[in-house]
Design goal:
Layout (H helix, E strand, L loop, with lengths): L2 H16 L39 E3 L5 E3 L7 E3 L2 H9 L6 E2 L12 H4 L14 H6 L4 E5 H4 L3 H4 L5 E4 L4 H15 L2 H20 L6 E6 L4 E3 L6 H9 L15 H6 L4 E6 L12 H5 L9 H4 L3 E4 L1 H7 L2 H14 L2
Parallel strand pairs: 3-4, 3-5, 5-6, 7-9, 9-10
Antiparallel strand pairs: 1-2, 7-8
Helix pairs in contact: 2-7, 7-8, 8-14, 9-14
């Protein structure tokens, strides 16, 4: 009997016996091109062709939000890391940000990122007066978190609420921003590079079972396609049998153990920089007696990843980094 058949038999037997900072940041999206379905396989092969982008003063995104600017926006304030990711892909730097994503070596790096003003108030409560002090011609935030700022910003600047649920959403937002800024060639090149990388990863899809968990202490969540952009990529490169259980649903350690997880990716959500050894989510979970029984833990295949990129980035550059790191770990 093959390794995969043995694993499946163990899962079925276990199932018979047994009978979210970030989940709320996504949307319950459908499985469009290449999105995949839990453990049902990789889905359709990703198309590497890119449609031309045309510069425009008005765009309507995939969520039905219409954005109009009187001129190509140059001073953009980012309240969500996807904004920073898109600007990096277009060769731009935000007028201000509340994300640490730009400090990553494949973005601006720590030294250059330190020169970008930080919006006071943090991700959840950015200060309106501070935002306007940067004289932005466009403010980009997360719809379900920053939508409440829209009335205060109206008339002073343009506010664009994003709500990505899949990588296709992220690509769509990139194309729209490229059209608004007039940086169409950069947008097309970034989309092309990502699609080519994803298509290549699909060709070497691993049969190992993978899992992404996130949290700041021993309480953790499971990243699932449709609610987490990064998780939406995983069925393309590995066996990823995790499905959304809604806002309040989660997976227990017993259920994770029963799935025979081969490779674990851990996103430790921390403030003020990366968590120190001993304070990481994987360190906290080590106190759970079931943790050490998970195949990935027993075999040293637990990977603490950069949450700024894996959990928050959600753009084509971040997702490209995820693909590089995930495919290497799954070999």
């Amino acid at each position: 009997m093959s390794r995969r058949m043995l694993r499946k038999a163990r899962r079925l037997a276990a199932a018979a016996v047994m009978g979210a900072l970030l989940a709320g940041c996504g949307t319950a999206g459908g499985n469009a091109e290449g999105a995949g379905k839990g453990g049902a396989g990789a889905g359709a092969t990703t198309d590497v062709n890119v449609r031309p982008i045309t510069a425009a003063r008005t765009v309507t995104d995939a969520k039905g939000v219409t954005v109009t600017t009187t001129a190509p926006p140059k001073r953009i304030v980012c309240l969500v890391a996807l904004c920073d990711d898109m600007l990096a892909e277009l060769g731009m730097v935000p007028a201000a940000t509340n994300s640490a994503l730009l400090a990553h070596e494949k973005f601006l790096g720590k030294e250059k990122a330190a020169k970008v003003p930080v919006v006071p108030g943090g991700f959840l409560s950015p200060e309106t007066e501070a935002i306007l002090s940067y004289k932005p011609d466009l403010v980009i935030g997360l719809g379900d978190t920053h939508g409440k700022l829209a009335p205060a910003l109206k008339g002073a600047t343009v506010f664009w609420p994003l709500q990505p649920g899949t990588w296709q959403d992220s690509v769509g937002y990139l194309r729209d921003l490229a059209a608004l800024t007039g940086r169409t060639q950069q947008g097309e090149a970034a989309e092309k590079a990502f699609r080519v990388k994803l298509a290549a990863a699909e060709k070497t899809r691993s049969d190992r079972t993978a899992l992404i968990i996130f949290g700041s202490d021993e309480n953790f969540g499971v990243a699932t396609p449709g609610r987490d952009v990064t998780a939406g990529l995983m069925p393309k490169v590995a066996d990823y049998p995790w499905k959304s259980r809604g806002v309040d649903g989660t997976y227990s350690m017993e259920e994770i153990l029963a799935r025979d997880v081969d490779v674990l990716f851990v996103e430790t959500l921390s403030f003020g920089g990366p968590a120190a050894p001993g304070q990481r989510l994987s360190d906290k979970l080590a106190a759970n007696p079931l943790w050490s029984k998970i195949p990935a833990v027993k075999n040293g295949r637990v990977h603490e990843v950069d949450a700024e990129v894996w959990a928050k980035g959600r753009g084509t550059r971040s997702l490209g980094i995820v693909l590089d790191e995930a495919t290497a770990a799954l070999r």
